Amino acid sequence: MDKLSDLRFTMESCNHCGQCKWIMPAKMHGWDFSEMCPIHAFYHFDAYSGQGLLNIAWERLDGKLEYGDGLEDLIYSCTACGACDACCKVVRDMEVLDTIYALRADCAEHGTLPASLLETAEKVQTSHNIYGLPHAERFAWLPEDFEDDPDADTALFVGCSAYRQPEIALSAIRILKAGGVRFKLLREDEWCCGASLWRAGMVREAGELIRRNVETFRAHGIKTVITACAECFGSFRNGYPRFVETDYETLHISQVAAQLLEDGKLHLRQAEPLVVTYHDPCMLGRLSEKYVHWQGEIRAYGLHVPEKQWRRGEHGVYDAPRKILEAIPGVTLREMVRNKECNFCCGAPSAATDPELARWTGEERRREAAATGAETIVSACPFCREALDGDSGPDCVDLCVLLARRLCEEDVQ
Amino acid sequence: MRIAEHIYREFAAVVGERYISDKEYILAGDRAKTPEYPMEYHSADIIVLPASTQEVVEIVKLCNKHKLSFIPFMTGALPYAYPNRDGTVIIHLKRMNRILEIDETDRYTVIEAGVRHIQLYPELRKRGLCYPPAAVGPGGSVLANMTSTDGSNHVQHGFSRANRYLLGAEVVTPEGEVLRVGSLQGDAGWFCPDGPGPSLRGIIKGYSGTHGQFGVITKIAVGLSAANGPAEIRSEGISPNHKVYMDHPYSRAYVFNYPHIQNVCDAMLALGEAEVCSTVQKYFYLPLTLMMTNSANEFWEKWEGGYKDTMNMPLVIHIAARTQKEFEYEEKILFEVAAETGGERLPPELENWWNEHMDYFMLVNRLQSVLRLGGGWMPNKIGADSVQHMCDVAEAMGEYIHEYTDTGKIFNAPESYQIIPMEYGHFAHIEVLFMWDRCKPGVMKGVGEFRARSRQEDIDRHFHSETPGSLMPATMDLGPLYSNYHLWLQRLKQSFDPNNVSNPMM
Amino acid sequence: MLFPENREQVEAIVAKAREEGKALVPLSSGAPHLHGASVNPQAETICFSRMDAIMKIDRRNRYARVEAGVTFERLIPALAEAGMRLNAPFLPRASKSVVASMLEREAVVVPKYQYDYTDPLLNVEVVCGSGELFRTGSAAGPGPIEELKADMCLPWGPGSIDFLRFFTGAQGTMGLVTWATLKTEILPSLSNLYFIPADMAEPLVTLANGLLLNRVVDDCVILNRVNFAAAFADSAQEESDLAVKIPEWVMLCRICGFERYPEERIAVYEEMLLDACAKAGLSALRELPDCDGLAGKVNTMLGDCDRRETYWKLRRGGEREIDFLAPPSKTPALVDILCGLEGKCGGDLGITIQPQVQGRAYRLEANVFFDGSAPELPEQVLADILPELHGNGAFFDRPYGAMARLVYRDPVSTEALRKLKAIYDPDGILNPGKLCFTGR
Q1: What is the torsional sign of CA B254, B258, B261, B265?
Q2: Contact assignment for B464 to C150 by CB distance below 8 Å
């Protein structure tokens, strides 16, 4: 993980153009749904934004700001959705989100983490899941007759969400089985992916867990990790390489399913028409690009030597979920204004640290979804699904679940 | 706490606890971080986020009562937006962000200060209307842009400058009264900026902006023109490789490279006389290369790989016609003028970039790429007069800029200036966007030398290549040369802001 | 009456007036003085008719610089000789000062060229009431005007204040303008004139709005029968004859071609014009029925001033007018209110509707013509109609008399104007009592 001192060039480069707060012009639509940063839209002060956090980081780096008095609450109200980063990087060579990560690491280093995050870390360390539930129950939902392929070099990593939303994991299994994919589950060896640690700046704790997980993959001979959780997916691709060399490929279940559909290996049944909108999870989309560590020299006029591989949100997983939705008979997809690399966060990442903000963000996203006329919001992340489920308006279903429900029965057998 | 608690409470009573802060980390979000501007910055004491004109009125009155200065604030991209003394209240207007009215018949829209270009422009385009957004980027406040920047824009060949589109206005005066300007003053709505009698609109915006020195402009009406082309914009791809199209058979961009600025001058005047093309601009090749590339490294590759030679003097054209006949007529004249004036059309792979980035012509998008090289940039001159005069200014610059570009004091792009005609060639503005390596020790000395030289050369040559700004040091220096402009500014300021609390730069 | 010959004399006059506490009333040209200009018996009148130099005509950069006393009858041909035209009011009085007209923001005939209400006025040199000399826009400097290489055509500034706007519509209360730079346009090499008749004004206003939004036509003005006949007839008899042949309302518009492919340009925009007319159920005619030869005459007169012995508005001997600005949506209703004057004022009612600023506003002018020997027009009738117009969206942007009382009711903006006045004319010597300013 980069430290604040590694990111001074970014801090000094910001000129407050405001691009980090607003939707990219290519997606221009109108007055509504044009804000990109949840905390800025909610709190309004510039300090609550990518630009503001760069200012804060700079003052922290130069010893001009101290923790206490609420600074840490501000830092952790941010959902770290990366909207600021992607929007900024349309036109700039700056690492806005990495600076926010570094600021969090700085905060953690100074022992001023919010209590809710410390609790989560404790749960992950003791129970290997974010909920603090017994590790032995991680796969309690698995049908007794389920058989995986012990020789497979592909693992389905079900993630902590399987505790609360096992239907997602079950659906993923149904899809893989129907498509004839050879895979196995890591069972008791599967621990939390560590997203809540590394994204919170708990560098030491995250590093230990990540190294352990990578070793586990190696021990199981895993070459490909499939996940139905965007948080896990983004962590494996974007978080893990910050700590350790990785030698496995990560695929999201949507990528696998889209390929199976294209190859004619999945067959879908007719069903009632359904108008849906698709919510791009941040960690599946703009934050899932593979992290490649860069170390070098920034020469005059921004020349990076050696050349840096920038992550600008271009290579997130955007098409696969849409291809699946387009393939499901009866389903009509209507896009929200803020989509793909310009998606608006669901708010889930701040649920523990700033529940009011998280609720507002989810509601704002639901409002946008409802404006499309969709009956159902489809997402591809259990945390988004939970955050976007409301009492009225469109319901929210996981992509995996929707697809599995539409599989022809004979395939599922 | 920077101000006394009881004073803080008075402000909090106006906006509510949620919309005021004196926390250091909140103030830090709006502290200036632009070391390249030679100004002394201070932190605000508090930031308030009013939701209405009435709240602004009460805040301003409190500022007068407690002798606190105030600054109306939006994006913060300009250095004038930051406190230059202690005891300052930042009045952040972003919560006042409503589009109050779009009148398609009378062709104006009424907006609050917090409305951004990215919000307003597409709303208008849906209705077949538009205005000329200035070159501040999509997230810039339309009101701040119209009132506090020079308002230059990239469609001003046909549209003219933002000045022409600023109609009625509502202003909270430095003493906290609501001043209604233009037809509003005569209870006749928003459509006219002037009168009754002499126009108070003059106080709001001259060539440059007043930057909040004469109160807080809370609402403005913006005049609208026809937006040729489709109501909806089609885009493809994922950032940063978006392509934005104007799907219209009679919309097309062209780029010609010229051997000399005087040839460009002839072309601009000829196209203006014929009243053809919606955009005509001699663009600056350094920002252009930055816009066409996705990283500093790619920039360097393309710049050194030939862009700086292939398009060192580019004239960018956009035709947005309504009928086939009009399109053919305009294109015929364009090609004729280009041939007469020595313009050489760029190869399709370079020219097509423009056709695939039509958001540039709409929202001046991607221009923020000029900052990609990491800071150390400044627009210079930014004056305006006739097209010919601006071209003469540019030509003269060639006699001294090499002392700075060739020696590495500033980026080696001696022809990186833009000249954009207005009102079909009746006038034009010039902007020299120069950059420097801000990480290089002592670089500011050379930068300062270049700026001073540039200004002095123009004064010595009797060129009107810049206009005195709002900052008192610059104004004091230049005022006597410009009809004692500074004295009038002082008198106006003293009269309208007797307590000197409204962004007191003077 | 004082007749200065140059700026230095104007400066001396102002200095003396300040010293002696005498009021000064500026007149730019000879009688008759319409639009509220009047001689104040308590004041010295300063007339600019001797400052009548056409200082510069620049074809390449399309502007002219003229002293305050230059009249339309001199400037228009001088520009034509250089291949240019002035975007002037509709048939202005030949002896009228161009600068005075522009300072008053009078309506102009080519709205597409008008980007702002101050157009085509670009900048001015002014001797302020304080006695100081000032130049606006890019005429401000750097340095003395004699050395300045700029074309002095940019209207904004200098700096952050739009000084020019303080002097427009001011009726000489802020300063005495000695010269002005004016935006000029290419003289058309070819032009097609169209008459678009209608029974009512409303469809023509709607049509003009669409045409100007799309920049289709060049000259554009809408006249009722009375004003059309008054403007284009050369005598009272001809006026009566013409009035019976023409429709109730006529929009006159021209499409011009310039130096490159003028026929093609006209063809492009004529197609759009005809299409718009067809959609509106209107016809664009090249001639009015039974009016042979009129088109040629109108075409010539549209780009000129009224050179006839008697100004068209004064043929009957007396004329009173009301003029104001209105947005397009309010214009038809305001025309109806003006029509209510018919029969109440003892004379014929002429109405001119001039689209301005690319069609985003209209200047409406009601002209009540009456016999010069008749008793003075009942001012009360005019005074009665003003509140009704005001209440329906009329903006009296250059108010005289009763209009001023109507529009200067907002204390904040009125006080702001008085602050301006105190800065520019601290002794209150310039045209006292006008607008919202106190008399002496």
Answers
A1: negative
A2: yes
Q: Is the pLDDT confidence value at B324 over 60?
A: yes
Assigned architecture for domain C190-299: 2-Layer Sandwich (3.30)
Task: Considering only the beta carbons, identify the residue of C117, C359, C423 that sits closest to B491.
Answer: C423
pLDDT range class, residue B471, cuts 50, 70, 90: low
Nearest to A18 among B47, B139, B439 (CB): B139
ipTM, interface predicted TM-score of the complex: 0.96
Residue A383 binned pLDDT confidence (cut-offs 50, 70, 90) = very high
A residues 104-123 closer than 8 Å to B (CB): none
- Residue from A35, A44, A307 whose CB has the most chain B CBs within 10 Å, to mutate: A44
Nearest to C345 by CA among C328, C324, C370: C370
Same fold flag, C190-299 and C316-399? yes
Chain B partners within 8 Å of C408 (Cβ): 196
What CA–CA distance (Å, rounded) separates A379 from A371?
A: 17
- Note the maximum CA span of chain C: 65
CATH of domain C316-399: 3.30.70.260
Q: In angstroms, rounded to a whole number, what is the distance separating the alpha carbons of residues A51 and B227?
A: 33
- Whether chain B has a CB inside 8 Å of the CB on A8: the answer is no
Domain boundaries, chain C: 7-186, 190-299, 316-399
The pLDDT of residue A399 is above 70: yes
Contact exists between A and C (3 or more beta carbon pairs < 8 Å): no
Residue type, A214: V
Model pLDDT, residue C374: 59
Does C398 contact B197 at a Cβ distance shorter than 8 Å?
A: yes
Q: Is C387 on the interface with B (CB under 8 A)?
A: no
CATH match of C7-186 with 1.10.340.30: no
Pairing relationship of beta strands C220-224 and C249-257 according to DSSP bridges = antiparallel
The string of pLDDT tens digits covering residues A270-309 is 999 999 999 999 999 999 999 999 999 999 999 999 999 9
Distance between CA C355 and CA C362 in Å, rounded? 4
**What values do phi and psi take at B133, rounded to 5?**
-70, 135
Q: Which of C118, C159, C171 is facing B194, going by the closest CB pair?
A: C118
Chain B's closest residue to C214, CA to CA, is: B226
Q: Are B274 and C259 in contact (CB under 8 A)?
A: yes
Q: Do B491 and C215 touch (CB under 8 A)?
A: no
CB contact under 8 A, C141 and B274: no
pLDDT band with cut points at 50, 70 and 90 for residue B78: confident
In chain A, what residues touch B372 (CB-CB under 8 Å)? Answer: 91-93, 302
Instruction: Say how many residues make up chain B.
Output: 506
Task: Choose the closest CB to C396 out of B181, B196, B207.
Answer: B196
Q: Which domains does chain B have, with CATH numbers?
A: 5-92 (3.30.43.10), 99-226 (3.30.465.10), 255-460 (3.40.462.10), 468-506 (no CATH)
Identify the band that residue A413 occupies on the pLDDT scale cut at 50, 70 and 90.
low
Placement of tokens 């409303």 in the chain: C202
> Is the confidence at residue C35, as pLDDT, over 60?
no
Any A CB within 8 A of B89 CB: no
Q: Which residues, other chains included, contact B439 with Cβ-Cβ below 8 Å and sequence gap of 6+?
A: A298, A300, B374, B376
Predicted confidence (pLDDT) per residue in B352-379, tens digit: 999 999 999 888 888 888 889 987 888 8
Chain B, nearest residue to A301 by Cα: B373
Any idea what DSSP says for residue C2?
B
Min Cα separation B333/chain A (Å): 32
Phi, psi of B21 (to 5 degrees): -155, 145
Chains that touch C (3 or more CB pairs under 8 A): B
Q: Are B280 and B317 in contact (CB under 8 A)?
A: yes
Q: What is the pLDDT of residue A218?
A: 97
